[in-house]
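WARN retry 2 of 3 for item q-0093 after timeout on previous attempt; input resubmitted unchanged.
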Amino acid sequence: MQANQAHIAPFHLAIPVDDLAKARAFYGDLLGCEQGRSDSQWIDWNFFGHQLVTHVAPERILPPARNAVDGHAVPVPHFGVVLDMPTWQALADTLKAAGIDFVIEPHIRFAGKPGEQATMFFYDPAGNALEFKAFADIGNLFAV
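OK item q-0093 returned
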């Protein structure tokens, strides 16, 4: 089943964390995600229009593997969102100013090819890998 391009349904993703205070500082304060419902063991976040839930489950936190993509060692698994280019650049600037230790620095991947995109990778405090990307032409999101 393919998503309707005019309306993309929000996804729901639950991830393990080891410290809700650190998750709150990272997702709420740094990334600017609005906090939703919460309890002593989890927090719902409005993650750029999607529902992300951070659950305390330190035993589920594993180091990611790596996969070669365009000359970089990309952490797998990872998650994130596709932003418009100005929002992506503003986030990259915010993260740089905050001193985030990037796994892969903000850059343009596949330059001059179908699927050219701005991308960056970094970890949250629990070690979950995130990728944020943007396309000058969103029509190239699935270009081959």
